[in-house]
Amino acid sequence: MSDLARQLDGYRLTTAEILYRLPDHPTLLQSYIWQDYDLAPRFPVLQKFLGFWETNLEGRLHEVRVGAVKLLKPADMRINTRIFTLH
After folding, report:
1. C-alpha angle with apex 18: 14 to 21, nearest 5 degrees?
2. C-beta atoms surrounding 61 within 10 Å
3. What pTM was estimated for this model as a whole?
4. Hey, where are the domains in the chain?
5. pLDDT single digits (tens) 4-29
6. I need a surface site. Which of 25, 61, 72, 80 has the fewest CB within 10 A?
């Protein structure tokens, strides 16, 4: 499915900052940025990715921060009251 078709179906551009700890350095937090189109507020694509992370990767999750924004929105309309002429 194309990105435009996904946006028309209600998907939003979703960014997640994932903080995790590596087994060999448990006192340090590492950061990973994940970005994809997903459906808010349940975020099934992100949930699937985090499930994969927990089962297949060694880094233990510490915190996940999520932000999502709709890219296709109704256009904002402004009325211009001045006209300038350039020659």
Report:
1. 170
2. 14
3. 0.78
4. 3-69
5. 888 888 899 999 999 999 989 999 99
6. 80
